[in-house]
Inverse folding.
């Protein structure tokens, strides 16, 4: 009976370590660059800072609008405020007044 003897190949020893290196490289790359990776975390943190600043601006605008609306409520109605709003809505002025035209960006 003939038996075949196999020599141990040096290439066979490298298969498992090379697969492990490929496996770790794949997951390492995605841990840094993936949608939930380290780099994305820094981007999300920067976006959160920008949005927080925008939120503060919107809150300040809202408080200003609430203050102006409060002046129009019953019992606290100011004639000057009512006159200003009516003139602004109708785009009119009296004959004895001087009208100063401003650009739309500078009006509140």
């Amino acid at each position: 009976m003939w038996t075949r003897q196999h020599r141990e190949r040096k290439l066979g020893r490298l298969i498992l370590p090379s697969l492990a290196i490929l496996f770790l490289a794949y997951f390492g790359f995605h841990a840094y660059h993936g949608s939930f990776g380290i780099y994305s975390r820094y981007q999300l943190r920067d976006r959160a800072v920008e949005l927080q600043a925008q939120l503060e601006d919107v809150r300040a605008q809202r408080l200003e609008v609430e203050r102006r609306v409060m002046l129009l409520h019953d019992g606290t109605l100011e004639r000057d405020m009512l006159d200003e709003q009516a003139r602004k809505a109708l785009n009119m002025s009296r004959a004895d007044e001087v009208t100063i035209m401003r650009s739309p960006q500078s009006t509140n």
